[in-house]
Design brief:
This protein is an alpha+beta fold. It has helices at about 5-10, 15-35, 40-50, 140-150, 160-165, 185-205, 215-225, 235-245, 260-270, 290-295, 305-320, 330-360, 365-370; strands spanning about 15, 55-60, 60-65, 70-75, 75-85, 90-100, 105-115, 120-125, 125-130, 155-160, 170-175, 295, 300-305.
Length: about 375
Amino acid sequence: MHDFLTVWRSGTALEAPEAIAVARRFTLDCVREFLRRRGVAEARWRSIEQGALLRYLVSPERVRYYGETPQFEADGMVLCFKAFSGERFGRYERVMLSRPNRGPIGLVVRIPLETQDDVHFSLGPIYAGLLWLSADPGTERSGIQTALAEAWGEEPAWFSKEECGEHAILGWRVRPAEWDGSESELVGGIAHLLTSGAAVLDQLQPGQSAPGGVATARSVHERLLRSGYRFSPQQVATFYAALKAKGFVILSGLSGTGKTKLAQEFAAALGLDDNHFLLEPVKPDWRDNTGLMGYWNPVTEEYVATRFLRFLLAAAEEYGRTRIPSRSEDLKGYIRRRLGEAGVQAQLQRHRDALQAIGDRDWTDNQLRHLWQDWY
């Protein structure tokens, strides 16, 4: 089995399934130590490890590609592990920890994957600390930076989105050549930073109800103004009200007027994770609905699903529910316990009806099960 510290320090390039496995084991070790310090039971940790790594292993050193983001709950936080994007291996491994619906700040451990040929990847510098989901941290950054320095005992550094990728981070960056300690010391240092960051979040985001609609609309409007977008307060409030009323909004207008940015800033303000926000650019080669909804491949007898369709099916399952299924559970067993065989058939029929409304195919139960291969 590959040793993280050896691979990281040496710059050894591994095939993507191997590199992700090495990095995932390390991020899990960091999370385990963080949760241990927060008093989370070992049994809960084992279920997280099972869902975030072991279910994807095809051998002790290789993981298979997966489209969903493994998500769990522990200590009042949502944990999201991610290493892939689109239809192939991505260029980073990270775990994000956030309070549900508590604003655009969370905790993160992120390891970029560097490559020369898109086949073999080496592990880059480790970033850890507080993560900003919004593009502009605004005036709150200085106060949070001071609070984190007091809790951590060191002065955190600010890393912009351009430096570390995906989102800006306030915390610590350690490069392979800069670390001369053991792996357990590195894990302990990251866990200490995460614990300090969690203490800051506990002060900033107490366990109370989420902000109301007016406060949310106002904060988004202010963030848009700081970014140079000129939406009126009425436009932002109308967009929010429409989302609350229907859950589905179509924005029309000329290119470059900020339609996409409005949706992005709302997602950031609500603290939405990767399972609840998807940006899907329109492609010039789209000629029918298959670009969005996928298609049935008669050769392989499998449905080629797009990430938009998977996202849509997951949203359909969660929409209107009082309880979101935990990703740490086996979803097939969860569905059977909740619905029973008759209920499963009813769900399949419901999705068949929805898909027939989009296209003219005669969807069978077997095809739908292929469509739901990661969910059913």
